[in-house]
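pasting Glutaredoxin for the record, 88 residues
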Amino acid sequence: MKLVIYGTDTCKDCVDAKALLDAKGIRYLFLEFSDSIGNLKRFLKIRDTNPMFDAVKEKGGVGVPLFVLEDGTMTFDVNEVISKIENA
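structre below
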C-alpha cells in the first residue's frame, strides 16, 4: 500500500513518525514542504479544503504529519497508518 506523508523535518512529530515507519520497514514518500513551495502548495490545498483540519487550525496547529494512503484515507495518526498497512 502506497503512503505519502506531508510534513517537515523541523517537526518533532514528523521525525518521530518517520523513525517509527522506518523501524517497521514501511516505505513512504515524504513530501517535505519547508524547502519546496510545490509541496507546500499541495499540502495547503488539502488543508484549506478538508474539514478534518478545522479543529487543528482552531488550535493554531499546522496539521502535520499528514498521512495519505493510496485508498484516499487521510489521518494524523501514525499508528492508524501502521495498522492499516500491516493488515492490508
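The CA atoms of residues 1 and 85 lie 6 Å apart.
The longest strand covers residues 3-7.
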